[in-house]
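User: Hi! I'm a student and our assignment asks us to look at how structure tokens line up with a sequence. Could you show me two examples?

Assistant: Happy to help. In each example below, the sequence comes first and the structure tokens follow. Example one:
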Amino acid sequence: QASDHPFDLVTTASPLSNGAPGDYLSDTRHRLRARGLGRSREIVELAQNSSHNPFITSDHPDPPLPTNTAPASVGNPGSQTSEFLSASQPSSSTPRPNRRRRLSRSPDNLGPSSGIGHPPRIARETAQSYPSHFLGRPDDGRPPSPKRRRLVIMRPDGISTENGTSDASNELIASASRKTGLNGQAATNGSSHTNGSKIPSQASSYYGHNREEVTRILIQSLYELGYNGSASLLSSESGYELETSGVATFRSAVLGGRWSEAERILIQSFRNAGSHQVDRKSSEEETLILAEEADRNEMLFYLRQQKFLELLEARDLASALSVLRQELTPLNFDVERLHALSSLLMCSTEVLHAQTGWDGSVSSSRERLLGELSKSISPSVMIPQHRLAVLLDQVKQTQINSCLFHNTAEPPSLYSDHMCDRNDFPLDVSVDLTQHSDEVWYCEFSHDGSKLVTAGKDHNVLIYNTTDFSVIHKLTEHEDGVAFASWSPDDSKLITCSQDKKARVWSVESGRCLLTINHHRQPVTAAAWAADGESFVTASLDSDAQLRHWSMRGQSLYTWKGGFRVQDCAISADGRRLVAADTEAKVHVYNMLTYEEDYCLPLPSKPTSVAISRDSRHVLINLAEGEIQLVDMETTAVIRQFKGQKQGEFVIRSTFGGAAENFVVSGSEDSKVYIWHKENGNIVETLEGHISGCVNSISWNPADPGMFASAGDDSALVSREQSIPSSRTSSTQRYTLKWAYAD
């Protein structure tokens, strides 16, 4: 007879195995159809009563499952279902078989598929069909095994061990039916676990690191290495996606030059960030999660600036002007930068590349733009570019910084911790060369390390070959002491500065004087080459023309006015900045493109020299009161101070040293050479190679980190790792050039 009750359940009992106690139910093959909750309770109690089932005896004890006997509302269908399930639980005083088979998933015992609430009942009976030790509640009080713990959470989403339904906890397992992306946003390319969820068989962290962060960084790195299949497999296996669909769309728009689409995503993202009513679809597919410090106008300015520059490069001046007037100007962001952009309208493509830092590749400039924009996007949804490489670089740099004698150009291996031996450091003096006849005021290696120039009080300039230590040229045309010399970027030319108020430019190959600058009325103290090697700046004690920019034809390109005298100057390797130290305890920093002064840095005492790092980021300032300051040229902050050398009366020129410029090196009035570690400021070594007088200048070979030179009142010394034949040793005269080597 067909049932018309909305909560009928058809139950078919079947044996666990042949000959098992369940055969009693199997043989009868009863199909019980229950009508109404009361009749159902009677049928279940009858089937479990030991008087009707001889196989349910006390010989098979097993604690019953806990029941929820809370009354359910008859008027609520869900409550009736819960009451039926609750009534189906065995009584705590009634033993039940030790072995029960899982409920068969055949159509016969699943019941009508159209019944409301049937899935919860089926799942509940499935759970009740397992003995308690399969549900992670061991009888002996011991914690369940990992396998048993996994079975605890093997239930469908929305099913709870309590009456009714509940959402599956993200802390237990992420449902395969729940499509999620980064930070809980929906993913459009397959299923994945919500970020922050835990995979059941995995620990929640990776040796103290966030598992999600580590996994997503690995996925990014695999893509960057070209292992796309492995990256996709890792994403699928871990359940973590690299990016949300919104980030992927934004990335594609920027790299593809679809500026309107990129702007729309940005504007919508800022609108959502400022509103509590966020459209779900746009939040998942077309918006970004922004960093707290993100600035709307700044990000739009970067996008429109890229658009403007690309139009300029294509020589579409009308469209570029339109973008400048109608899109960039209304943002009212970085007015100074806006003026600089407007000046590019009349520039050639070559000048455009030089002033903007472009290499002529649109794709690479867009990559840089995306990297800049990513700083304003939350890293939880858009990992910064090359994140693993950056972290590995930081690990290497940390090891280098902690290595007291690190002096090699080879990067440390990632396989083991790094430490350099002190014996590999150039420390000892071993060779004397008799060339200068008086105090040596200056020394400097060429950029390729193949030559060394020394200049001194005897009016002479000597150029040495660092391979066999022979003198290549002896330049004798100056009429007074020579205090400075500087190599051109390609080492083909050399400029020397003398107290005879002249600067001379020499051909390194021939030793011939190419140009003489005799326009200064006071001694020329220093000079610096422009990045192109076709012009240079001279510094002098002449307060009317303390700094001048010259062409190789002897034409004065620009004269800085300031009414002060300059002791030293240097131009950064990127050609952007000119740094000048005056005699009034100040350092002036100029823009070499505009000739404008960027800033003036006051100092506690008179500076005697300046040296700029190879990366053009830091400047080393030697002060007359026995202190050296390392200054960040971008922020003007004093990063570190180095003390210990003796100074007060004479000009001493300090410099960076080592393979990666890890050291700060300076002479001293106590005839010693001081070497500090740049990162911690500690003194690494104090060398006593000079006999007497002041050590005036230091230079470290940029091509050979095992060689450095020092020029002093008594001589010039050079240290090197490898030894040379003793036959190279000659005179013991006072004013000589000494070459020193570490064992």
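Example two works the same way, sequence first and then tokens:
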Amino acid sequence: MKNDMKSEKNRPAHEIRYGGIKAVIWRNQTTNGTMHNVTLARLYKDGEEWKETSGFNTEDLPIIAKLAYDVHSWIHAHTERKPATETEPTTT
């Protein structure tokens, strides 16, 4: 049972992949609430084995920009917002 909890904790919250480039979103609980971290990787095949690298070439940059935008959107859509309190100004 303890191993099940550990493997669940180590699972990514979400993954977005465009071709051989991927972004993995990790959710971490802190005393200040939920925080998200993101890792980027380029996938490549070395013989019969798939590997990952954190190095990218010039042609990867537009894909990384799109991934960054989509990751930000996903995190924003899946983050709980605290309700406004009476002391916080509201817009009308």
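Here is something you could point out in your write-up. Strands lie at 14-18, 21-30, 33-46, 49-53.
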